[in-house]
Amino acid sequence: MLKLILKRVIQALLVMLCVTAISFLLIRLIPSDPVEVMAPYATDEQKHYLKVRFGLDKPVPEQLVIYLSNIVLRGDFGESYFQYAPVLSIIATTGSKSVILLANTIGLSIILSLSLGILAAQRPKGIFDNIVSGLCVVAQSLPNYWLASMLILILGAKLRIFPVMGFRGYHHTILPSLILCLPITAVLSKTVRFTMGKGFEMDFCKAAMARGIPHRKIVFRYALMDALVPLLNTLGGQLGFFIGSMVVIEYVFSFPGLGWETLLAVTRRDYSTLQGLIFILTGFFIVLNLLIDIACSYFDPRLRHAQGGIQ
Known about the structure:
There is one protein chain. The protein is mostly helical and 311 residues long. It contains 13 helices and no strands. Helix 6 crosses helix 8.
């Protein structure tokens, strides 16, 4: 297990380095530049002063070397061109809200997918199984921005059940979390239903039934444990989809999280903030996938044996 963790950490560092360098170069291919956005009517001397202040007057390769050295040696991600604050402080302020949104989304997705998947697997091709399959297709097909707009109109503007703008407490995360979790729940539910359906046909489940073990214990002790590894792997694959959807949903709800800050950084050409956000989101994605790999190895001893981990 320790060898697995060490290997993944080294891979993560290399991925972070490559993503940071590539994103640094690609961001500068965006038309326009921060100085033109900040001060479109400034004089040439004023624009030159701003470029020197933010280090934009140097060649791009030199800027990249300085940026990477500041991160590695000092943990300095620079200063926002528009907010005149350290990038890390901006990310810390907005990131806490997005973490709450992520925790709500993942928790709700797991609870709903396990409940629907387990119930659907009890009677394959039954009425409930067909209903769940149909709902999963609908949940995956609906555009999240359209669904968000409809729920804002119905549950927010008309019924006034949920707040729909900004962030002033936990209750402001409920509706965005619900919208973000629906497509993820659809994918996870189908994974649980398919894996548990196959599990009931495996020899170990048939042997447990033959020995008279209670059905509830077979479901939760045998079939469900066999479905946890595919569930976690599928969840890891959905994290990238979540990050992309988070930008759209936070914009629709004017939710001041990392997604909203990313969109603002792109439109403002705020290079330093955008680079810091990409770095943090990449690291967050890698760490979560590492934790999922460790959890999969814990739940499935065959993976530990194959990877030379603790027996």
